[in-house]
Amino acid sequence: MSKVKIITGTSAAAEAARLCDVDVIAAYPITPQTTAVEKLAEFVANGELDAEYIKVESEHSAMSACMGASAVGARTFTATSSQGLALMHEMLFAASGMRLPIIMMNANRALSAPINIWNDQQDSISQRDTGWIQMYAEDNQETLDLIIQAFRIGEHEDVLLPVMVNLDGFILTHTVEPVTLPDEDAVKEFVGIYEPKHTYMDPDRPITQGAVGVPEYYMESKYDIQKAIENAEDVILKINKEYSEKFGGVNGNGLIEEYNLENAKTVFVAMGSICGTIKEVIDGLKEKGEEYGLLRVITYRPLPTKHIKEALKNAENIAILDKNIVLGMDKGALFVDLAHTLKDKKTANYIIGLGGRDIKPEDIEGIIKHAENAEDGETKWVGLNQ
Fold first, then answer.
1. Which CATH code fits 256-381?
2. How far apart are CA 111 and CA 130, in angstroms?
3. pLDDT in tens, 234-244
4. How large is the average pLDDT for residues 166-173?
5. What is catalyzed by this enzyme (predicted)?
């Protein structure tokens, strides 16, 4: 039987891992992720979760431990943030290259220098080419929902890749919201027992994992990862539909969410918790008879370009909001990634909320006014103290 708890985003992530009955957790504390693994340690200590909890000396070691566990067939989970995710960089490539379906919660936080513990999405965006599936939650409920689905997605025989579920640091990680926890037995039935779909390490049947990729084979391994990420798009749609039918309360299709797009000529494109603020502004303007829309990107890797293009077919002005910056291009990563897909549309890019800078409803309203008169391809930094 489902129940509602008033919990933080990190607690929602921990509850999701518990409901999925993970076998191994390896993690290292870092603000604002720490409370997630503290909660998991509590579950293990209290006997609420039968899992091996590995205390390691760094995030690099955490991912290494998860890889070893996953390679022998264990369902694994970890969590990190910012500099911790950056320290994992080397091992993120190894995890995807070895086709290990590790699930990780990342609490989005700015990268130093200068040192900053507040939210933007630069950390996960910087890992976009590591071969991990990336998903972005709007709220605490979606954090739980996406992590549960992530185990099915990553472990699917057509995918077999690690999945990173991102939630905005402090904005979600430390804010309490009502979260509906599905029935534990129903979740276990949904995710099933993890049975590796490829040969895994076994003393009775020795194999090689992470071998040297000589030129004759290396390129093919990367091609296989590319195809697996492409496969993930249909898998995400299928699993999201199944999850929605079983548990309800899901916004979007797992790839994108369309919000008030039907009659909107000016449309926002964004990821994460900022979308809640955008929706409030859209709703307020709708009451005044003004129509604006939002295309929320839930899955960033694989980037569902065909779905995005179809959803925005009637839009005339597209404002792409990025809580990151591609230094040297004066653009955000989401804008850069969508530039070709939306080449026939008028688009403008808005760099917003870096380092935890407040994003207010009036900022969103200002973007609307600017976008309607912006030059195609224009970049505007919103909220600069200049």
1. 3.40.50.920
2. 18
3. 999 999 999 99
4. 98
5. 2 oxidized [2Fe-2S]-[ferredoxin] + pyruvate + CoA = 2 reduced [2Fe-2S]-[ferredoxin] + acetyl-CoA + CO2 + H(+)
